[in-house]
Write a structure and sequence with these properties.
- By secondary structure, this protein is α+β, with helices and mostly antiparallel strands.
- The protein has two domains: about 5-135, Cytochrome Bc1 Complex, Chain D, domain 2 (Orthogonal Bundle), CATH 1.10.760.10; about 150-290, Chalcone isomerase (3-Layer(bba) Sandwich), CATH 3.50.70.20.
- The protein contains ten helices and five strands, in the order H-H-H-H-H-H-H-E-E-H-E-E-E-H-H.
- It has helices at about 5-25, 30-40, 50-65, 85-95, 105, 110-125, 150-155, 175-185, 265-270, 285-290; strands at about 155-165, 170-175, 195-200, 220-230, 250-255.
- The protein has a five-stranded antiparallel β-sheet.
- Helix 1 (about 5-25) crosses helix 4 (about 85-95).
- The protein is globular and about 65 Å long.
- The protein binds heme C (2 copies).
- One heme C binds near residues 171, 227, 250 and 251.
């Protein structure tokens, strides 16, 4: 999510911290400020542009493009950006001074040398020219081994429902028996696990407010999409380690059960990575608490 207006504020914040570090003795500083400053200050060693390019090619290009022109409007271009700015933003994501669901996962996996190298590489790329086209997404991060679980309504367990008041939507979560049995036994979800989430628009009343059913959940109206995650042996082998979720693959399907080619799975993977200890499933707790292993397809 691009938060317009946030960037100048954060840049000022970083620069302010940096200046403070120069003025004040290090002993008086908070640990995070020292960390920020040490990442921000150029080191004695020259940056290695080729090493930076290799890192970008493997990971960052999935979103920012190999040439620093990003793959989508909500992802910033980095081509021609000042290396100090890039390094300062990565340091801020690392320290938590700047937060983003994706970059807060990626930046802490970069070493100080990585940061200098990728910053030098991106800044060496020609900046955005008028009419420049967006970069293509990476094939290994758009392809998926996920297949549509045709009979999930009758064979999967419905284990969770979530109201989304802001977007006036409601989501229904289903897991297959392999996933449900493991979760209820407190075990990591094994290969063969499948989870699918139906995303509906909520039925609205005359005042355009979602109608709430007796169970407290919004009444579903039109199905918008189906989000799935499935895992199988070696399914993650083509995914760079910084993004990889072991052997999970992701996919989005249309209401007609057609695979959508537009989602960038780098985003699914990066965002789900913090749920590593929960088999990459944010709602694992709900699945583990599910009452019985029998299918429960609900009313809708
Ligand atoms: C899965 C997609 C994804 C990947 C992979 C990714 N980024 Fe990002 N990056 C983003 C998004 C989205 C933002 C915007 C964050 C925000 O709005 O605060 C961003 C922002 C940034 C920024 C701040 C740019 C600015 O204008 O302030 C830098 C620097 C950056 N990324 C560097 C990297 C580097 C280096 C890598 C590889 C190691 C990388 N990113 C990999 C999605 C990604
Ligand atoms: C911005 C972070 C973010 C991104 C990007 C993201 N997810 Fe999720 N996902 C979540 C969170 C948080 C939940 C749990 C709550 C919810 O469903 O909103 C979730 C839940 C899920 C679930 C149910 C299992 C679980 O983890 O609880 C599936 C399946 C899923 N996402 C698939 C996808 C797919 C496919 C993509 C990429 C097209 C994707 N997600 C991208 C954050 C994200």
């Amino acid at each position: 999510m691009l938060q317009t207006g946030l960037l100048p504020v954060l840049a000022d914040e970083v620069i302010a911290v940096f200046h403070q570090c120069i003025r004040r003795p290090h002993t008086a500083l908070l640990g995070s400020m020292v960390l920020l400053a040490s990442f921000y200050l150029p080191s004695a060693q020259a940056a290695d542009i080729a090493a930076g390019k290799a890192k970008v090619e493997n990971v960052c290009s999935a979103c920012h493009g190999l040439n620093g022109i990003s793959v989508a409007d909500h992802i910033p271009n980095l081509a021609g950006q000042k290396p100090e700015y890039i390094a300062a933003q990565l340091a801020a994501f690392r320290s938590g001074a700047r937060k983003n669901e994706i970059m807060s996962v990626i930046a802490p996996q970069l070493s100080k040398a990585d940061i200098e190298n990728v910053a030098a590489y991106f800044s060496s790329q020609p900046g955005m020219v008028p009419g420049a086209v967006k970069s293509a997404m990476l094939p290994n991060l758009t392809q998926t081994r996920v297949t549509f679980p045709a009979n999930y309504r009758s064979t999967f367990k419905r284990y969770h429902v979530l109201n989304l008041p802001d977007s006036k939507q409601v989501k229904f979560y289903y897991a297959n028996q392999v996933a449900a049995a493991a979760a209820m036994a407190g075990k990591p979800l094994p290969d063969g696990s499948e989870i699918i989430v139906e995303n509906y628009s909520a039925k609205l009343d005359a005042a355009q407010k979602p109608i709430v059913g007796q169970d407290g959940y919004f009444i579903a109206d039109a199905l918008r999409s189906l989000a799935t995650m499935q895992r199988g042996a070696n399914w993650g082998k083509d995914i760079p380690e910084m993004l990889r979720n072991e052997d999970w693959n992701y996919a989005i399907f249309t209401p007609e059960h057609q695979l959508r080619g537009d989602p960038n799975h780098a985003e699914c993977l990066a965002c789900h990575k913090p749920a590593k200890d929960a088999s990459y499933v944010f709602t694992l707790g709900e699945l583990g608490k599910a009452k019985s292993a029998g299918a429960d397809t609900g009313s809708k």
